[in-house]
Hints:
The protein has 398 residues and is α/β, with parallel strands linked by helices. Helices cover 25% and strands 24% of the residues. The chain has helices at 15-19, 43-47, 87-103, 118-125, 144-158, 169-182, 296-306, 314-318, 349-355, 384-397, and strands at 2-5, 25-28, 31-34, 53-56, 71-74, 107-113, 130-135, 162-166, 185-190, 192-196, 201-208, 213-217, 225-229, 246-249, 282-286, 309-312, 339-343, 360-365, 378-381. It has a 7-stranded parallel β-sheet with strand order 9-13-8-5-6-7-14, sandwiched between helices. Strand 11 and strand 12 (213-217) form a beta hairpin.
Amino acid sequence: MAVRMIVDNCTGCKLCLRACPYGALDIVEGKAQFNEHCNQCGACASACKFDAIALEVTFTRDVDTSQYRGLWVIAESACGGHGSLRRGTYELLGEGRRLADKLGVELAAVLLGDGVEGLAQVLIAHGADKVYLAQDPALAHYRTGPYTDVLAGMIHQHKPEIVLVSATPQGRDLAPRVAARVSAGLTADCTGLDIDINERLLVQTRPAFGGNLMATIVCRQARPQMSTVRPGVMKALEADPARAGEVVVVPVKLDERAILAKIVEIVQQSDDGKVNLQDAAIIVSGGRGLGKPEHFDIIRDLAAALGGAVGASRAAVDAGWIPAYHQVGQTGRTVQPKLYIACGISGAVQHLAGMGSSECIIAINKDPTAPIFNIATYGIVGDLFEIVPRLVRALREG
Length: 398
């Protein structure tokens, strides 16, 4: 993507100056001109109301892929742009470290927000060699426009060959917007990543056709190669506080008047007030074996006794027994808790793919041939309506 000025159409209104986060425009003799700070972010084109700035698409066949090097992870804060980092960021750093080492390149994290400089060392401790830090009050809470403008400019300037984004609601909103702005290739909702070292290609695996098959995707021409990756799939690295890295401050200045979306109120909300599945250390899930929705009460009792969250299989959700945000599996949430207890879940491939990376799996099922037992750390063959209440009583009495 390239930005081109159409001087004859320019009225000198200065809207483009307000929109540019990098101070890359000046008014000279009543007309806007790009200066040496322009990195082709495209924010000015979106702001211009007089068709004086055009975004020109670069065809993928014309991209010189040899100019692109390095792997980026886009960090995400748990509270907009000024809180702690989300779990998915740590997981991407762990996977990014593996992929970057395989490619022989540096791993960089990109951190946008306001007052987040303290998180830069956290990113380095979890595997980043370098942190690009951009701060402005307008970045304190996520909004598609300013985050896209800043990130697109950084990509144009530094040319990473791979960019990884967590497939959270924020990441799923941001990644396609950025990919379109920089003419990149994007694979969404990946569950597996690898490197074809001979061609320097990111090999991306994602579920397709409702999770009934897995697709493998590569992007041979466009750069960077971009992926959104499901939280709960990759392994985070243990923090190394002694690890050294470089922090690169990216100067940005955003004018609130040029940002279309305004934040009126921030409402913190979680699923029924329970622990979010992707952040839960303990999950107790129920499946078709429960028989009817009322029987999820014993699952909730066990989860409460353990201080965990309630999950469910696709069959239970499809039956209308429990809301869809409890669903674990390829078409639900991918989780990686320390303890996963599957009650009345046979173990369809779709479900196993969503929880198979759990540290400890306990399966309770009356069918000794149920596939869930093939991956369970501990298996209990029996009636869940007898076993689960006994576990709850033992926990409460103990």
